[in-house]
Design brief:
globular; homodimer
Chain lengths: 348, 348
């Protein structure tokens, strides 16, 4: 059994590959080759500490497993990371444990990939302008994943409606962070590496405190915040814009106007989760849409891999996070680590 | 984070301590200090391969976590263990992973302890005669746990209704196995060690193929089989006998006559699990008892720790297995291992 830390993951996970396996995982959920089991959620202290367990079976990869991820807001004061957890994988032919992976780091990769899979399918492939709402732990992962699938992105605008200074700080450091954190894992002789290095070198990153103006200019919008109130109004969004709502993953969370579920074309990762804890929950409660009317992105991907962008239509993808993303990304990491003989091995 | 293998567990777990923490865990479930979350179950191949995830929170110990345990019948032919899995524990103040423990080995201890907790509460404290039905992986754990709480046990009779030769083989080796596997973990200067060593030296172990006669003679009966048909009839059981049904943990399993749920005084570990997957499932289906009428052993233990034996009454405990047992036993193992600096430590 192999154990991979956060820094091991930086060595073995490259976004082009993670995006591919997450896309496959969504598709397999739709075709029935991937199964997710009920999510378990527990709150230790209201709005301060919680954990969830996501589990499932990814048949094509011959693995099943689970992720337990905890969030303890008080850890910051203790100089500990707020997010902690483990992903455990098991072999579907023997039940033997295959590996354990740092769940917090893996979650960054698989969630970045989630947005990118949707952007690849739904956004303007020539998009130049990305708006990132939020500047927390997901920010770098989201941007790097979008750059991977949208080669013409040249401008990143960052808005943090709660702490504008955090957006400013991120804007200053982002290109360097992305270059150091994510480029080394991509084969330096590959076209992909050279393309991304050039794209990063040419990238303009700025912070803004005018969310309305930034929304109007964006070709692609990614919201990755813990917001409980809509930040973006439906009528701010210009036709042809694609939105990934990443933040909402529990009851009470909301990032964008629920009217987008009547005006935009939308997809979710899992209709049950999306209707109960995702961005769609407010629209479902308001009667704008029913759970049954939420198409899953995997259903689209199972039908076609052609880009669906229509310049007249706003599209929205609601990502709540499913175990198959974690399992697919963890399995990729463990497979790559085995080739490099990286990580600690333990014998249970 | 500490990792404990099966052989590490033999060094750090002694049955007197495991029985104490499992008894506490049952009690905490009843008082609300312990919480179990919904069990997840998946069958890969009908009657050949399955897995379950049990999870929960043991507040008194400051830990939460989960066990994933898989059973692959085909492993035997591959010279691999049939049962494999992991228990992961996390700290309830920070969410940091605390340790990972071999789940198959731990399950032996915590399931042995489950039966012993019930025998301590319900069986004749002067019981001399134990009938063990089944001679599989649970057998040694069950007998050692019963010896720990019933100091006057002198005769063990083993019946295997499917493979009598397995019962015979186990009878030959049992005392040596118990002495080698379980005595070393108990402080050799303690009274408990000396008492158990004497009891083991004096123990008579035999196999029988007459289950009816063996049942009539038994003071305590432990059934630990994968049976799907009742093996013991209600009218074979003499007054004052205590029965632990350990085997039934999924739909379709049954070890004893469901009429015992009308004639005996019974307890379960978790009424929901017992009614759906435990020994009580057949009695519930037959209308002999309802889920609501299944008292939990923890409710009794929260009221009194006095032995409840009545020479006129047959008692029965239906053990299905709850996460709090695993969490309590794993936490004990990790705490003891930390004192001895035993096991591998990894940094996620």
């Amino acid at each position: 059994m192999r154990v991979l830390t956060a820094s091991d993951l930086e060595q073995v996970l490259d976004f082009p590959s993670v995006i591919t396996v997450v896309e496959d995982a969504y598709r397999e959920k739709a075709t029935g080759d991937g199964t997710i089991w009920p999510m378990i959620y527990h709150e230790f202290i209201s709005d301060q500490a919680d954990m969830d367990i996501r589990s499932g079976y990814l048949k094509s990869q011959g693995v099943y497993g689970m992720k337990l991820l905890s969030w303890f807001a008080g850890n910051d004061a203790k100089q500990l990371p707020e997010l902690n957890g483990t992903v455990n994988l098991y072999d579907d032919q023997t039940g033997l444990p295959k590996g354990i992976v740092n769940a917090a780091a893996l979650t960054g990769y698989r969630t970045g990939a989630a947005g990118a899979v949707a952007s690849k399918a739904l956004a303007n492939p020539d998009a130049t302008n990305l708006l990132l709402v939020g500047s927390g732990s997901q920010a770098a992962f989201q941007v790097m994943a979008e750059l991977t699938v949208l080669p013409k992105l040249r401008q990143i605008t960052i808005v943090n409606v709660v702490s504008p200074e955090n957006a400013e700080a991120l804007a200053q450091s982002l290109v360097e962070t992305l270059t150091n954190q994510f480029l080394p894992a991509i084969d330096s002789n590959s076209e992909e590496h050279q393309r991304l290095a050039k794209q990063l070198a040419a990238l303009k990153v700025s912070a803004s405190d005018d969310l309305k103006a930034a929304t109007r200019q964006a070709d692609v919008i990614v919201t990755a915040t813990p917001s409980t109130k809509p930040m973006i109004k439906a009528d701010w969004v210009k036709p042809g814009t694609h939105i990934n709502t990443i933040g909402a993953d529990m009851a009470g969370k909301q990032e964008v106007d629920e009217q987008l579920f009547s005006s935009a074309k939308f997809y979710v990762d899992d209709r049950t989760q999306s209707a109960s804890v995702g961005e769609a929950q407010t629209a479902v409660k308001a009667g704008i849409v029913t759970e049954e009317q939420l198409p899953e992105i995997g259903e689209l991907l199972a039908k076609t891999t052609e880009n669906q962008w229509d310049p007249q239509t706003v599209t929205l993808f609601d990502s709540t996070g499913i175990a198959l993303q974690d399992i697919a990304a963890a399995n990729l990491a463990l497979t790559n680590a085995a080739k490099l003989n990286l990580g600690q091995t333990i014998n249970l």
